[in-house]
Design goal:
The protein has 373 residues and is mainly α. The protein has one domain (22-371). The chain is built from 14 helices and 2 strands, in the order αααααββααααααααα. The protein has helices at residues 21-50, 78-92, 97-123, 131-151, 156-159, 176-201, 207-226, 229-235, 246-264, 273-290, 296-300, 302-325, 337-343, 348-371; strands at 161-162, 172-173. A two-stranded antiparallel ribbon has the order 1-2. It is globular. The model is unreliable at 55-68 (pLDDT under 50).
Length: 373
């Protein structure tokens, strides 16, 4: 919103700097970090007074006999990230269809996650909203997203193009009713899939948010490139006018993520809960679509993909062996896969740091796809 002050540069020349997307992205990151640090202590104290904490006691121990006890640590920390991102975006992003759609998805999924977390803490168990209700609302959010993008003249044409890594032209166009159905299905898997993938990854202190920061950094760069005609032409990627503003949102997400990580680092003072994980996954998923890099997210978000696949493999293998032998067997010692390494005796901090390293490697590989066309 403050970018509009650049229109008054004739009254005060320095206001022209607010036209620069890179500056506003950095300011968004700084603002979100500041908001997160200011809000964090108050939110943690408030959630503790309300006794909105995790109601489970993890008895797993490693080879050194350490105990992973996280009972009653405040949850719903996703509210901190959401407020920081929302305030920062409101201040520094210039509103357009891409910004509005991103915040619609983020706000709606935050509300769903908040309801889920609230029911869990109010009931004192792990039962939140039913999987059927959660799926219904996630489907509704995806449908609303597609309607927003497909009916706006600015985004309608670009959202129908499917780009894949290493190819310098769109490989498919979603046209007609069949095309829109296919686009909805693909967008659904990305928004809902990455929502659930981050939710599964959020099992160790700092793991999910650390990996989210690296993904947000990469997609901030991709959004800037897609919204810049010269850069997109040089890299042979799709030029999507207006998506540069998504870099501001990604910058805000990086800043808010760093502030949250301050409180979520081991031993965590605050968990993001479904309030954060569901919304972050959906936000990243829809940004990937809007900058025409959805399949690249499979590479950049490799840790999230691996976590989700580990659960699918574990469940499928258990059912298969039970059907074949009468006794279900495990492929991993425990799923998601980060718990597998805990079971092998790795300290929690070692698992988190090594997964961060892998996430950074995936991010660099994903960035490399921009140049390899």
């Amino acid at each position: 919103m403050l970018s509009y002050l650049a229109d008054y540069e004739e009254f005060w020349g320095p206001l022209r700097v607010l036209r620069y997307l890179t500056l506003r992205t950095l300011l968004a990151a700084g603002t979100a970090t500041l908001v997160g640090f200011v809000l964090g202590p108050w939110l943690i104290a408030k959630l503790r007074r309300l006794k909105f904490g995790q109601h489970y006691d993890d008895d797993r121990t490693g080879d050194l006999g350490e105990r992973f006890d996280k009972k009653n640590t405040p949850t719903m920390g996703g509210l901190l990230i959401f407020v920081a991102v929302a305030v920062s975006t409101l201040l520094w992003a210039t509103p357009n269809i891409y910004v509005i759609t991103s915040m619609f998805v983020y706000g709606a999924l935050t509300a769903i996650g908040f309801r889920d977390d609230y029911l869990k803490v109010s009931r004192g168990n792990r039962e939140g909203i039913s999987s059927r209700e959660k799926l219904f609302w996630q489907t509704a959010v995806t449908a609303g997203t597609l309607i927003l993008l497909a009916t706006n003249p600015t985004s309608a044409e670009h959202i129908r193009e499917l780009w894949v890594p290493f190819v310098k032209e769109p490989v498919f166009m979603f046209v007609g009713i069949i095309g829109m159905i296919l686009l909805f299905i693909m967008m659904f898997f990305w928004v809902v899939g990455f929502s659930n993938a981050i939710n599964l990854t959020d099992g160790l202190d700092g793991l999910a948010i650390g990996c989210t920061i690296t993904v947000a950094l990469v997609y901030g760069i991709m959004a800037y490139a897609a919204g810049n005609f010269r850069i997109s032409e040089y890299l042979l990627i799709g030029y999507v006018p207006g998506t540069g503003e998504l870099a501001v949102i990604c910058g805000a997400l990086v800043g808010a993520g760093m502030a949250f990580l301050w409180y979520n680092s081991h031993p965590a003072e605050l968990f993001m809960g479904d309030t954060g994980s569901l919304a972050l996954g959906g936000l990243i998923g829809v940004i990937a679509f809007m900058v025409q890099q959805p399949l690249t997210l499979v590479i950049v978000g490799g840790v999230f993909v691996a976590e989700a696949l580990s659960v699918i493999i574990q469940v499928s293998y258990f059912k298969y062996t039970r059907r074949q032998t009468g006794e279900g067997r495990r492929f991993f010692r425990m799923a998601p896969v980060h718990h597998h390494f805990q079971k092998r005796g790795w300290p929690e901090t070692k698992v988190v740091l090594r997964f961060w390293i892998i996430s950074l490697m995936c991010a660099l590989i994903g960035l490399g796809t921009l140049k390899l066309r």
